[in-house]
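Please review this one:
***
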Amino acid sequence: MKGIVVYDTSYGNTKKIAETIAETLKEPGIEVDLFDVKDVKKLSAKDYSFLVLGSPTRFGTMSFAIRGFLGKVKSEEWMNKPFTAFDTENPENLEKKEYSAAEKIAAKLKDKKMNQLLPVLKALVFDQKGPLKEGEIERTKDYARELAIKLKEKKSE
């Protein structure tokens, strides 16, 4: 089983979450490639069993680079493959129940007939630039451990 974690970052917070997810998935032996979205030249579903995609939330949506990346995710290739999505956002977004990048990413991937394994992860940052709120890295590790369990269950089906 091999997956790909792709992220965009403005101030480094989303990168930290992506790195934490990738590192935690590797602990039980899952092979993972980690890419900044700007470094993904071509994407082949044949190379990967699952996709994890993340973006900072800016103005209630995903980054332009992630939106462009989603165009490379072809439904016919990725159909039925598992995914999960994450973002970094200000706690005020949650309080106001505003849209988030992760929710919009998840909706786009579901439209491509992919299977969402877990609810989206919303990692909280202070202000616009961060840093991450205390406890977010540990919460991300717990999320990735849960994802690893789901992936292994999926593999054994």
About this structure: The helical segments are 13-26, 64-70, 75-78, 91-96, 101-111, 136-156. The chain has six helices and six strands. Residues 136-156 form the longest helix (21 residues). The beta strands are 2-7, 31-36, 50-56, 82-89, 115-116, 121-124.
